[in-house]
Amino acid sequence: MDYRSSGVDIDAGHDVVRRIRALARETRTPGVLSDLGSFGGLFAIDPSGRDDTVLVASADGVGTKLKVAFLARRHDTVGEDLVNHCVNDILVQGATPLFFLDYLATGRLAPEVAVAVVEGIARGCRANGCALLGGETAEMPGFYADGEYDLAGFIVGRVARSAVIDGRAIAPGDVFVGLSSSGLHTNGYSLARKIAFETLGCSVDTFVDELGTTVGEALLAPHRSYLPALRPLLERRSSAPGGGPLLKGLAHVTGGGITDNLPRILPPGVGARIDTRAWQVPPIFKWLGAGGHVPHDDMYRTFNMGIGMIAACTAADVPVLLGALEADGARVIGEAEAGEPGVGYVR
Fold first, then answer.
1. 129: how many CB neighbours lie within 10 A of its CB?
2. What are the C-alpha distances in Å from 254 to residues 105, 154, 185, 307, 330?
3. Beta-sheet strands, E only, within 234-330
4. How far, in Å, are 112, 174, 230, 265 from residue 318 at the CA level?
5. Burial of residue 232, with CB atoms counted within 10 A of its CB: 0-12 exposed, 13-18 middle, 19 or more buried
6. H-assigned helices in 4-49
């Protein structure tokens, strides 16, 4: 089995982004600092540069993880997932969140469900220090199945223009440090659900010895926010000759896994070599891979495989980074090398 056989075509998604990039470029105004395809969009408050503030915005959803929430009748975690995912997407460019908005659409509004979802959103906002500024609740009879809803989030943060993290300074010999994930986060659920519920015949209440918990609990493990771990490092300077920022680049490992997300921050002429022996793949990924007979390459392009965020730094700064992130499961997982942006795996 692979992601495409479960109904998701990552290549088609990339093709759409490539084809609509020109449409987005036609709307550019003087404040736009980024192109379509970045983790977050950058917009300068004052294009003249007198005000150094840059707003960073992002929008995302929870995907078919919602289907697991419906089956488990548990709605208090997906809102937190949504906030944390969006926070991480602007964090990789050095931004801290200002405010968040949500969109909840359903066929028939169930007040207790809507309140549970927003409780999770509010909890995520409080934990990340951003305001839940507003949103939209849409009741659309006949559009969604009974008991189902869709959820999307929109976040805006800020960073000084001089402190934007964009990966441009990453060079061969730099090192990639991975931070551990808390599970699938919010990606790969179409394949995970197909394996767990169709191929293996499990329910959300099935207890799996290898996981030490039920299928539902394992799949609903909340998406980690890396802001608490990385915020203290955003303004730290490198100890390497010439100084510069400690963090040369950050990649949030979401849809497409390490394979597709790490190259998004690599400059021309720089590739990545990742050693898959550098960390222990969590049991949930081993269980899914074995249960669906998923090829190795498809596992690493569908799931985060236990690494939810990747930081790039000079070799001289590795001890500093590992020391600061020891509690977050940080470890060296690879290095930058000469070549076109892409990931080569050492198995």
1. 13
2. 23, 17, 8, 10, 18
3. 249-252, 270-275, 307-313
4. 48, 9, 14, 19
5. exposed
6. 10-25
Q: What is the pLDDT of residues 145-177, one digit of tens each?
A: 989 999 999 999 999 999 999 999 999 999 999
Pairwise CA distance, residues 270 & 262, whole Å: 11
31-68 burial code (b ≥16 CB/10 A, e <16) = eebbeeebbbbbbbeeeeeeeeebbbbbebbbbbbbbb
User: Is residue 10 very low, low, confident or very high in pLDDT (cuts 50, 70, 90)?
Assistant: low
Alpha-carbon span 300 to 298, nearest angstrom: 5
pLDDT in tens, 175-192: 999 999 999 999 999 999
> Tokens representing 135?
């949103």
Q: Which amino acid is at 220?
A: L
